[in-house]
Amino acid sequence: MKKQFSSVPKVFLSFSMEHKPLVELFRDQAVGSRSGLVFRDYSIKEPVEGAWKAQAERLIRKSSVTICLVGKDTWRSEPVNWEIRKSAELGKRIMAVYLQSHAVRTPPALLEAGIAPMPWDVEAIVDRLYDDQRTVH
Questions:
Q1: Which CATH number fits domain 10-135: 3.40.1010.10, 3.30.1330.90, 3.30.300.30, 3.40.50.10140?
Q2: What is the pTM of this model?
Q3: For residue range 42-61, what is the model confidence (pLDDT) as tens digits?
Q4: Are strands 10-14 and 40-41 parallel, antiparallel or unpaired?
Q5: How far, in Å, CA of 68 to CA of 16, rounded?
Q6: Taking the CB of the first residue and of the last residue of the chain, which one, N or C, has fewer CB atoms within 10 A?
Q7: b/e per residue 84-102 (b: at least 16 CB within 10 A)
């Protein structure tokens, strides 16, 4: 059964580049889910030397939610922590998803925002995206 909503969340993905294969799998599963969700990827495909912050901010502004994909060393990533903080500053909804085991460290910016990563369960993530959309005006 497909979900029917007035608008589809625009998602900015924040992740460490070393996790790109898992990120691609996550994106493919989200697009292929039976939820009817059209996964709009506003993540930066390639690092842009010197201009990544400006590009990331522009893409975050165009998004309705930031999803941080948390892997083993994501907590150390300066770009990921910056993107989370910028998303919070801009008033964007923030979610986090474990890419691997729950036994990984959480990025400091997620802790500061009070965001706990959830398990990788595409249906639950999609439900959360739409539940949050219903309550945010």
A1: 3.40.50.10140
A2: 0.83
A3: 566 555 566 788 888 998 99
A4: parallel
A5: 9
A6: C
A7: bbbbbeeebbbbbbbbeee
